[in-house]
Design goal:
About 40% of the residues lie in helices and about 20% in strands. The model has no long low-confidence stretch (mean pLDDT about 95). The chain is α/β, with parallel strands linked by helices. The chain folds into 2 domains: about 150 residues, ATPase, nucleotide binding domain (Nucleotidyltransferase, domain 5), CATH 3.30.420; about 180 residues, Nucleotidyltransferase, domain 5, CATH 3.30.420. The protein is globular. The structure holds adenosine-5'-diphosphate (ADP).
């Protein structure tokens, strides 16, 4: 069974074609600059990449180009579009109703359109991508996989904010959590490695956007991102959690509108805001190594906040069996991993410094010290595979 996974952004569309019988990625790629001009990068394992300028006035043009490349005699991997059994679409937000992955019919689409206010950045392009794919591939099922749905089983005490309850009832203001597809994938992998489906697991997805999730019994019990992906640990350009009064105070003293304050906290804060160097962790590490104090401080703040959240989740779960690092920073930055795990031996967390330093990038590794009570893993995330798997399960 072949499944196409689509992740549509405002000016981009990522795709991967999976053969679910062999668990292989047959082809993947990226359409960029949709609505501006257009570039497609198309990759197949073991073959040269194909990169071309193509005019993409909209998402429909982009998906049509993807399908023509997938079926191209030279650059393609399938003989006909009919070989694609179903399409899985990544959605950041499923709101309160789409609590698990679902086949997207008219009702579901209507609901997704009704909640774009909760998700103004990712919602509209994901819906455009879905509509374009439905138009171009009307005979197959389209499945939505939602980042928020992993958190739909959390207790009310974990997702209701201590603000007037009517705000939740009237405006659905609550903790939703994001990156759920990634946390679900790596937490399941860790449970498999532990041989314990009931395990208590803390997953640290540390990338440009970062979040930490606590999982018990395969279900998320808490997560650091909230009403939006702005909450939690500091990120590339997002502040993460701060005293909410800072926002209204900045607005007053700097005379900012709500939109300007939002942009300041989303695009000019986090690692970039503190370091003044870059939002990219590699650049900040380089600068810190040269003695740049603010770059060093940015990294220290990141580690401090990750530790704080891990500690709180251990308290919430009454223990932890494994801590998992994933995504760009989690999978690659050995120093951040070492700094996060430092001085946690009282809790049973201890890593093998040598293994942490030498384990190959991009592969699964057990970096726990011998005899450590808590396992520490590096697990490369694979959200696309998770989307393909849900799509297969809902359509086969
Ligand atoms: P996104 O959230 O956009 O998917 P990624 O998961 O790709 O982001 O993570 C991007 C982050 O990972 C950047 O801060 C980048 O510096 C960091 N990163 C990627 N490779 C390395 C590396 N080799 N060493 C340290 N950090 C890295």
């Amino acid at each position: 069974m072949k499944i196409l996974v689509v992740n549509a952004g405002s000016s981009s569309l990522k795709y991967q074609l999976f053969d679910m019988d062999t668990n292989e990625v047959l082809a993947k790629g990226l359409c960029e600059r949709i609505g501006i001009d257009g570039i497609i990068t198309h990759k197949r394992p073991g073959k040269d990449d194909h990169k071309a300028n193509v005019d993409f006035p909209d998402h429909k043009a982009a998906i049509e180009c993807v399908l023509s490349l997938l079926t191209d005699k030279e650059k393609g991997v399938i003989a006909s579009v009919d070989e694609i059994a179903a399409v899985g679409h990544r959605f950041a937000h499923g709101g309160e109703k789409l609590k698990k992955s679902a086949v997207l019919g008219d009702q579901e689409l209507e609901y997704l359109e009704s909640i774009v206010g909760l998700n103004p950045l990712h919602g509209p392009p994901a819906i455009s991508g879905l509509k374009a794919c439905k138009e171009v591939m009307p005979n197959v099922k389209h499945v939505g996989v939602f980042d928020t749905s992993y958190y739909s089983n959390m207790e009310e005490s974990a997702y209701i904010y201590p603000i007037p309850y009517e705000l939740y009832e009237e405006y659905q203001i609550r903790r939703y959590g994001f990156h759920g597809t990634s946390h679900r994938f790596v937490a399941a992998k860790a449970a498999e490695l532990l041989g314990d489906p009931n395990a208590k697991i803390i997953t640290c997805h540390l990338g440009n956007g970062s979040s930490i999730t606590a999982t018990v019994n395969g279900k998320a019990v808490d997560t650091s991102m909230g009403f939006t992906p702005q909450d939690g640990v500091p990120m590339g350009t997002r502040s993460g959690a701060i005293d909410p009064t800072v926002v209204t105070y900045i607005q007053k003293v700097k005379g900012l509108t709500a939109e300007q304050a939002d942009a300041l906290l989303n695009k000019e804060s986090g690692l970039l805001g503190v370091s003044g160097v870059s939002s990219d962790c590699r650049d900040i590490c380089d600068e810190a190594a040269k003695g740049n104090k603010r770059a060093k401080l940015a990294l220290e703040i990141l580690v401090h906040n990750i530790k704080k959240i891990i500690g709180s989740y251990i308290a919430e779960m009454n223990g932890v069996d494994a801590i998992v690092f994933t995504a760009g920073i989690g999978e690659n930055d050995r120093q951040i991993r070492a700094d996060v795990c430092k001085d946690m031996n009282w809790l049973g967390v201890e890593i093998d410094e040598e293994v942490n330093k030498t384990c190959p990038r991009g592969t699964l590794a057990d970096i726990s010290a011998k005899g450590a009570k808590v396992k520490t893993y590096v697990i490369p995330t694979n959200e696309e595979y998770m989307i393909a798997l849900d799509t297969q399960n809902l359509t086969k």
